[in-house]
Amino acid sequence: MAQISNIEEFKSRLVDGGARPTLFYVTCNFPTSGSVATDKDGLTTLSYMAKAASIPESIVSNIDVGFFGRRVKLAGDRTYNNWAVSIINSEDFMIRNAFEEWHSALNTPVTNTRGLPGIASYKKDVTVTQLSQNGFAVRTYKLIGVFPIQIGAIDLSWDNQNTIEEFPVTFAYDYWTLEGGLSGQRRAGPT
User: Fold this and answer.
1) Is the pTM of this model over 0.90?
2) What's the confidence (pLDDT) of residue 29?
3) Least confident of 79-83, 111-115, 187-191
4) Is position 5 within any domain?
5) Which residues form the domain of 88?
6) CATH code, domain with 52
7) Which of 12, 47, 68, 86 is the most exposed place for a label (fewest CB within 10 A)?
8) What are the start-end ranges of the H helices in the chain?
9) 136: buried, middle or exposed (CB in 10 Å: 19+, 13-18, 0-12)?
């Protein structure tokens, strides 16, 4: 069995110095137009204010089947856990307001009814894009059928000096797909 024998072999395998967790952006199609400002490159304010996110996990459960007292594990169904993002809040509350409008349209607080007609009107897509150190999009994960299930609290305190507000949003989604490969030839941002 081959072994890693020196640091040079290790470095040769770490393409371009390794992927960095700080080089990413998140885009979201909100159900109501005009809720979130879009810049000249087509990025929404969310792309700049999403402080933390994750590449979604991939889960295939197992099915245990008994055979003469032994358990054999077989591949089961694919499942998708909820996905969360942490967002920096601006004084205009633009992103927070967009999420609150979306959340309210799922189930209005007063009438207990849906404010958007049909599933397609409230289930949207979100992407999280990993960038190379040169600013190229190397992988984009597209979460399909997304809607916010929880908009987290914003903690207020007289003791929180020299900080900016932030809040988490948790999404349910149907599945994710992978867009883009490993070539790193696409530029960052929409084309």
Assistant:
1) no
2) 83
3) 187-191
4) no
5) 14-62+70-187
6) 2.30.110
7) 68
8) 7-13, 45-49, 94-106, 119-122
9) middle
